[in-house]
Amino acid sequence: MGRPSSSSRRRALLAGTDSGRDALRRIAVALSALAAVTVVGTVGYTALGFPLLDALYQTVTTVATVGFREVRPLGPGGQLFTIVLILLGVGTVLYNLGVLVEAVTEGHLREHLGRRRMERDIARLRDHVIVCGFGRVGRSATRYLHDRGHRVVVVDTDETRLDGLTEPFVHGDAANDDVLRAAGIERARALVCALDTDAATTYATLSARALRPDLVIISRARTLGSKDKLVLAGATRAVNPQLIGGRRMASFALHADVAEFLDEVMHDDDLDVRIEQVRLGESDAVVGRTLGEVDVPGTCGCQLLAVRAPRKGAFTPSPPADRVLEAGATLIVFGTPEQVGRLRALAASGRPVSAVEGTLGG
């Protein structure tokens, strides 16, 4: 597999950013030149005997070519100095106007300021999800995350895909460390990688894993053979949408009611119940207690479907009451958001529901 990048391609991807910076640089140069002409004019007229305010006023009216008369009569030296100042000043003013008109009409300044504002927004994000690749899979993942209240940063090399996007985005190669840092990978909770080719997805996965060894990375595998390679590259899980889609269709054919129920629970926003996970931390009060002592259904109202052992261990469906809860274990539960909220509060505090309901808003 050849890495899909080159110096010329990277220059093309950064062209928009460079244009915006060039526009700001030209504006800064133009304004600096105008300020320099004003200072030179003021100093010159002061040397000719003008008071400071009169010298400044004479300089501004001369450079602006407004046609006012001189503040004081000018001798031959003053007239010669004024001629030079007019030539320099008028040229500088015209250059300023040209630079400003070009920056506004071509949109470079507006785009650059928009990017700076977006960079500040991304810098404030915490626990967001980065979606690399905004094709069909990336769009679907972004919509799902957005509908569930998660903040998303999109990364893509194709500007046409990013047009009109309301989510924060970074235009660039997801395999580039600087691009991933610009997307806030140091503060992200997860990364979804769904690029156009398995090679691009593999390199982006490698880069993301090198920057964040603890990050949850979900990579899209376009072929079955690439799933194992993506896991070796650092993906937490490699997903083949075609395989999942085929199995889902077969499930509907064989177990229509079960498949439809799970589909509604996982994807229907109008349904009030969800299958959620609650991971136990080192300091959670329920760690070391048995499931019988905690009594998740009776105490919180949600149903305990399974327990997963720490460090991505095995699942235990319908765990027995004498199962001891360990730090790092994950509880898979079925219930409403309020019921799951009670369980999270109970896990952290160890107090029964009646003692923590007030902190949960009922």
UniProtKB/TrEMBL annotation:
<protein>
    <submittedName>
        <fullName>Potassium channel protein</fullName>
    </submittedName>
</protein>
<keyword id="KW-0813">Transport</keyword>
<dbReference type="InterPro" id="IPR050721">
    <property type="entry name" value="Trk_Ktr_HKT_K-transport"/>
</dbReference>
<dbReference type="Pfam" id="PF02080">
    <property type="entry name" value="TrkA_C"/>
</dbReference>
<keyword id="KW-0812">Transmembrane</keyword>
<dbReference type="Pfam" id="PF02254">
    <property type="entry name" value="TrkA_N"/>
</dbReference>
<keyword id="KW-0472">Membrane</keyword>
<dbReference type="InterPro" id="IPR013099">
    <property type="entry name" value="K_chnl_dom"/>
</dbReference>
<feature type="transmembrane region" description="Helical">
    <location>
        <begin position="27"/>
        <end position="48"/>
    </location>
</feature>
<dbReference type="InterPro" id="IPR003148">
    <property type="entry name" value="RCK_N"/>
</dbReference>
<dbReference type="InterPro" id="IPR036721">
    <property type="entry name" value="RCK_C_sf"/>
</dbReference>
<feature type="transmembrane region" description="Helical">
    <location>
        <begin position="80"/>
        <end position="101"/>
    </location>
</feature>
<feature type="domain" description="RCK N-terminal">
    <location>
        <begin position="126"/>
        <end position="240"/>
    </location>
</feature>
<keyword id="KW-1133">Transmembrane helix</keyword>
<dbReference type="Pfam" id="PF07885">
    <property type="entry name" value="Ion_trans_2"/>
</dbReference>
<dbReference type="InterPro" id="IPR036291">
    <property type="entry name" value="NAD(P)-bd_dom_sf"/>
</dbReference>
<dbReference type="GO" id="GO:0034220">
    <property type="term" value="P:monoatomic ion transmembrane transport"/>
</dbReference>
<feature type="domain" description="RCK C-terminal">
    <location>
        <begin position="263"/>
        <end position="349"/>
    </location>
</feature>
<keyword id="KW-0406">Ion transport</keyword>
<dbReference type="InterPro" id="IPR006037">
    <property type="entry name" value="RCK_C"/>
</dbReference>
<keyword id="KW-0407">Ion channel</keyword>
